[in-house]
Amino acid sequence: MSDNVRPQHTGAELLLRSLEKEGIDTCFANPGTSEMHLVTAIGKSSVMRPILCLFEGVVTAAADGFWRMKRYPAATLLHLGPGYANGMANLHNAKKAVSGLVNIVGDHAEWHLEFDAPLTSDLEGHVKLHSDWFNKSTGPSNLGQLGTLSCLEAKSGWGKIASIIVPANHSWETGKELEQPSVSTSSLRPVDDSILNNTARSLRLNKKRALLLGNQGLSQKSVEYASAIAKATEADLLCETFFPRLYRGAGEVKINRIPYFAEVAIDFLASYDQILLVGAKEPVGFFAYPDIPSKLTPSSCSIIKVASKHEDVEQAVQDLYEDLSLKSRPRVDYSQGDRINSITLDEISVSQIISEFLPENSIISDEGITCSASLYAQTETAAPHDWLCLTGGSIGQGLPLGFGAAIACPDRKVITFQADGSAMYTIQTLWSMARENSDITVILLNNSSYAILNIELDRLKTGARNEKILSMLNIDNPMIDWVEISKGMGVEASRSTNVKEFRDQFFSAMKQKGPRLIEVIIERNILIK
Hints:
- The protein is an alpha/beta fold.
- The chain folds into three domains: about 5-175, Rossmann fold; about 195-325, 3-Layer(aba) Sandwich (Rossmann fold); about 345-520, Thiamin diphosphate (ThDP)-binding fold, Pyr/PP domains (Rossmann fold, 3-Layer(aba) Sandwich), CATH 3.40.50.
- The chain contains 21 helices and 20 strands.
- The protein has a seven-stranded mixed sheet, sandwiched between helices. Strands 3-2-4-5-7-6 form a six-stranded parallel sheet, with helices on both faces. Strands 12-10-9-13-14 form a five-stranded parallel sheet.
- Strand 6, helix 7 (about 140-155) and strand 7 form a beta-alpha-beta unit.
- The radius of gyration is 24 Å and the shape is globular.
C-alpha cells in the first residue's frame, strides 16, 4: 500500500501503534490536559495496559523496576515540563541503574508556546538532563517514527532512557503511517582482546585481589563465570554498594557488598593489591567528609578495568573464564541461620524473621537505609531471591521500584523494605498497589527519624546538637500513623511493636496474595557498618 492511500490516524494513535509493534505493552501514567488524545488512544487499545500513578516520581521509578525485572522497557506518560520535573529524582536513579524506558512527555500545542502560559517551561532542557536519547515530533506522522526509534534506543546497550516530546496538536492532528527509517542503534561493544589478555596475565600473579562486579557483571551468567575465576585465582568476589539487581540466597554464590560508610569501606578494601572492575566503577565515597579520602581503595592498589558501561560484560567474563581454562562453580550451602532469641524489635530481629519466611524466587526492593545492611547479611542464606537497590541515592524509590517489579513479575512475591522518612516521598504508590492488586508486602520501618542524617551529623563533625538542629532530622512531631495512611490508600495494614507480633504478621503476609503493609516500630539502634 502506498503512502497516499494509507489510512489516516491521529498522531497519538500512530505513536501508540509504533510502541505496540516494538513490544511495549505497559504504560505508567500521570497525564494532564495536553495528553488527553494519548489517553484516548491508550483507552482504545487492546494491547497497552495503562497504570495510573498519583505522582510522577512513582511513574518513573515503577518503569525502572519494570525494566530491571523484565529487561524490556515500559512507557511513561508525563505532563509537560513540571510533570517531567516531578519524575526527575527517580529518573536519576534509573539512569544510574542503566535502565531502559520510554518517556512520552506532552507539550503545549506549537502555536500556544509563544504566549508563555503558566505551565510553559524549558521542556527540552528538562528532558536533556536524564535522557540518553530524545526527540521532539515535527508532525503527527513523525510520531509513529519516533515511537519506533525510542523503543530501539531504550533497548540498546545495557538499557537507555529515551524520551519523546509530543506537542498537543500533533496528538490530535491526523497523519499517515510512514515507512520506518533505516537506523542502526548502539549495541554492546566487545571488550578488546588485548584487555582480556592483560587481565588474564594479571590474574596469574600472586596478588591479594578482588573482582568487583556491577550491573551486568551481576547477572546470573556473569556471576557463574566470575565465581569460577575467583576460586581459581584466589580472588574475592565483591559487588558495588548499590547495584540494580542481584539474584542471591541459599545455594547461590556469595558476593560481599562494599560497605556504605566510607571509613568502613576503606578498612574493608585496605588489604587489596588489585581490584578488577567487571561492569563496575572504581569505588568512591558517597559523599565528602573531613579527613576521609574520596577514593576508597589504598593508593598501592591497582585498578584494572575489565569491562565497562557500554561493553559486553557477560561475554567478556565468559571469554576470560575460557582463557583461564576453568570449569567449576562454587556454591554456598543452605543454612537456616540463627534462631531469634531477642525480645527487642530492631533491624536484626526483623531481618532474621524476613530471612526465615522469605518465599523462594521473591523480590526485595531495598530502601531500608540504615537497616539495609542487616537485612542483606541475614538473607544471605534465605531462599533464593532478587535484590533491587537504590542505585542513585535519591530517596523515594523503594515503594514504586517494588511496584514496577510486581507489575513485571505478577507471579512473584515482592517485599519492599522501606524506611519511614523516604517512604513519604512516594507514599502515593500504596494507592496504585491497591488498584492493581499487586502482590507486595511493605515492611515499613518506623523509627520516627531520618536516622541516616543523625549519623551523618556526627560523621561530618558539625558540633554539638541542640533541639533546633534535631527538629530538622526527626519526624516524630507529629507522629505519622502508617497503618491509617495505608488503609486510607486501600492497602491492608497492621502494626508490630514486638518480635512475636512481627513474626506472626510477616508469616501471615507471606501466605496471602495482594498488597499488605506492616508497620514495624523499631528502636533507634543504628551501627556504622
